[in-house]
Design a protein that fits this description.
There is one protein chain. The protein is an alpha+beta fold and 213 residues long. The chain has two domains: 2-79, Gyrase A, domain 2 (2-Layer Sandwich); 87-212, Cyclophilin. Helices cover 21% and strands 31% of the residues. The protein contains four helices and 13 strands. The strands form three sheets. Strands 5-12-9-10-7-6-13 form a seven-stranded mixed barrel. The protein starts with a strand and ends with a strand.
């Protein structure tokens, strides 16, 4: 673990240099360990592919004090209760009006639409991070046969529920927004609801399978 300052009120902990199941599990366990401490000094905890970022209240602590305290309490880490990942099945309408980039993906990958759908829906994905917008899951690892670049110029409008792919990841747009991923389908599942907890349908570590409809 590599500890570093992250701005004036942040700590960045790096668990590895590459995205992998092992690094992901370290990030996930440490994230739930931090949450379990319930420290009033900590304002927010943001887990990602290989890191955890901690934002703290600089009226209550500072970088050196909080870092020392967390490292001292790491002896409690093995006893942390880490919840089992939830499993989600997401129905997807692939191609056509729902997947405006399907033709490009087929051409780039040298595959037919049915093959793209079979490959994309044939993998159980891990949610590595949730971000960009509330409820947006970054999931992987995407089958290498579907590796495609992002759009050179992002769209100004991507519909809510759009299922996209880019490089080694797949994701779902939780709200209408600009975006640069290649859109191959759409789901009607709601990924974020501010009216009830848990607001986000998915969390780090969850398992996701897509089902063509």
């Amino acid at each position: 673990m590599n500890w570093a300052r992250y701005g004036e009120e942040g700590i960045r902990i790096v668990f590895g240099n590459a995205v992998s199941a092992d690094v992901h599990e370290k990030v996930r366990r440490y994230y739930f360990f931090l949450k379990s401490l319930r420290l009033q000094e900590i304002i927010d905890i943001i887990p990602s592919f290989t890191t955890c970022i901690i934002y703290f209240n600089d009226q209550l602590t500072d970088f050196d004090t909080l870092t020392a305290h967390l490292q001292e309490r790491e002896r409690e880490l093995p006893e942390t209760d880490v919840p089992a990942p939830a499993a989600h099945t997401i129905p997807v309408m692939y191609g056509g009006q729902y997947g405006p980039d399907m033709e490009f993906v087929c051409s780039y990958a040298g595959l037919a639409p049915d093959e793209i759908i079979e490959i994309h829906a044939g993998t159980v994905y891990t949610v590595f991070a949730v971000g960009f917008m509330p409820g947006f899951p970054y999931m992987g690892a995407l089958d290498k046969r579907l590796f495609v670049p992002r759009l050179e110029t992002p769209r100004l409008k991507v519909n809510e529920g759009s299922v996209g792919i880019a490089q080694f990841q797949t994701g779902i747009y939780s709200f209408e927004s600009p975006g640069g991923w290649r859109i191959i389908g759409k789901t009607d599942r709601r990924l974020f609801d501010h009216r009830q907890e848990p607001y986000s349908l998915m969390k780090i570590g969850d398992q996701v399978r897509f089902v063509p409809v």
